[in-house]
Amino acid sequence: MPAIDSYFITTPIYYVNDVPHLGHAYTTIACDALARFMRLDGKKVLFLTGTDEHGQKVEKSAQAAGQSPADFTNQVSQRFRDLTAKFEISNDDFIRTTEQRHIEAAQAIWTALVKSGDIYLGSYSGWYSVRDEAFFSEVELTDGGVGERLAPSGAPVEWVEEPSYFFRLSRWQKPLIKFYEENANFILPQSRRNEVVSFVSGGLQDLSVSRTSFKWGVPVPENEDHIMYVWLDALTNYLTATGYPDLKSNVFKTFWPTALHVVGKDILRFHAVYWPAFLMSAGIVPPSRVFAHGWWTVEGEKMSKSIQNVVEPFNLVDVFGLDQVRYFLLREVPFGNDGDFSKTALIHRINSDLSNDLGNLVQRVLSMIHRNCDAEIPVPASFSDDDQILLSQVDDLLQQVRDSMKQQACHDALEKIWAVIRTSNIYVDHEAPWALKKTDPIRMNTVLYTLAESLRNIAILIQPFMPNAGGKMLNQLGVPAGFRTFSSLGANKRILAGQAIPKPVGVFPRFVADEFSDG
Ligand code: MSP
User: Fold this and answer.
1) Closest residue to atom 30 of ligand 1, CA basis
2) How far is CA 84 from the centre of its chain?
């Protein structure tokens, strides 16, 4: 049994047919915020990301680039690794499906499915979309004109006829429904769960799980003419990283089945239907949750290479700053919903939430302490009712944010932190510590102490979302490195009076919208 304090979180593994864009960065940032949060909350975390390197789509992209699939995948996979570095992602492992450890795991799960009697040889004839790496039935297709048939994603399909192994998915319909019933939060958000349940209730057909018409994949163990269907190969990565097929490995015992798979809504079916069915068939308990997030459009349009509106994440960070981009993506849209990206919206968030609400508060409080309290956190006298109202809101914050993060509601967590920032701004205006310097310096000390304590809580809690800003704020408050986790929060662990603080510097610069309006 995994320990209750272990937390395994995964991003989808990214196809290496193309370089990373904003959509990829989004999933990874959200997982990073969740992973960092849980670590600061004392959990043992395994955070996994990586690249999905097999299949027809990648093989075709390599051909188009005039490279061998191996050279091509090495190159593009590296771009995804670079993305994790650029966004300061705290992943514990980066998996590539071309690694030997993964090929062994994928073949082992195949063998387990064979043993359970769920694999049989047949022949597939039907529609296949290379872009989705998925099979479709006639009724799911639409007419794309000039004889072209399109999958629901808009990708063209081709007719495929070849020998194929099948997985008896049909047999798992009832066990899946039972599993969803017994695990009401296995699929979140709830609306997505309903879609999956109704899809499975409609009946499941056996799934073609091998291909013979190309070679770039994991060979089927007992018949090397076949390679494994790329989704069966890819999904297994989550097990590979735990040490599977070694069920006695420490990582497996610690982290399986605590896995939380964060995925885009387009790949929910693979994770919430096929994956638990494969696992149940292989005698392995399914993961604890699949959370499906929404998609970003750009200025109201679908992000697409053909209309050249793909948002390039590296450049975005260079122009606007890492914490700013991370904050925007996590705060702008409730996690699970679709969102629209625009530079205007990004700049608005940076200026209003970061520069005005938080940046000004930090700057005002720290400069007053620096100037009026000999650059030391002042010693408070007795707390007034107003002080206590703010402090009790501050003390409740961790539990509130924790409740949100347990539901993957990053936007909600940030909203709760910002409620305390807003209260602190109202408090500082109302208490006017600058005016107390001459009239009542003892009261001024108490007010500034109360504000410093609020800032300390805010800084500790924003670290998962904005690691740099959180760290900078804590440096400026003089909080030592060993006192920055959530175990340092709470009414009996206040900020240390007498602690020296350095000369304050601004945390969030403002942006002038006009300078960035041309995209
Ligand atoms: N390789 C598969 C996943 C296998 S996991 C066992 C795959 N890769 S992908 O690179 O095409 O997509 C990865 C993720 O990026 C998906 O979760 C997808 O939803 C997400 N996004 C792609 N475009 C997106 C947006 N425009 N907005 C938000 N997320 C988007 O699918």
Assistant:
1) 23
2) 12
